[in-house]
Design a protein that fits this description.
By secondary structure, this protein is mainly beta. The chain contains one helix and nine strands. The chain starts with 10 loop residues before the first strand and ends in a 32-residue tail after the last strand.
Length: 212
Amino acid sequence: MEQTREDEIESILYIGREVSVYKIPPLKKNEGHRAQEWGDLADPLWKGRLRIIERSSGVVIQFEDPTTGEFFAKADYDPAKPSVEAVLDSSRYFVVRVEDNGRRAYIGMGFLERTDSFDFNVALQDYTKRWRARMNPSEAPLDQPSPHMPAGPKKDYTLKEGQTFSISIPGKSKPSSTISSTPNLLGGGSESSNGGGVPPLLPPPPSAPRRR
């Protein structure tokens, strides 16, 4: 089991109760990994628990026995050189670069449920955001307004009491009729300022029933 300093604080970012580990073939040139090429996915090389642990020295993805805690493999996670890669044909499988005493190997990893793989991804993304903020504190927050939006207060385009606007009524000889902004445009028998009756604007027709 990996030894850590007694005074080092650990933070658990994610726990995968059951993950499967697979031996994977070498990566083909200019192509990504595919889980369907790993053989029988129902017969993994190893099954156990996965934990993402954050320490002062960094983040590690750790594979271990859920009962005894026996260490199987680990992968240091550096956002500058990510050790996790998603496969091309599934959202539940990943390729992880693990290291042991300077030796490096690539293993396949799979989750039973897509929600588990989603939470795994979110945990790594959240840490990556905090890591980037720490490495580049002068960068503007991501939730700032877009620089492409015009600055200044928003203009109020709503009609005030007494103001009017013109609309064209198809089929009428007159080009336009002026109505007051006070009545409800979707109902009611409002009259125009010139004394003529203006038919109310109707709501859109209902959508056609879907054919079964």
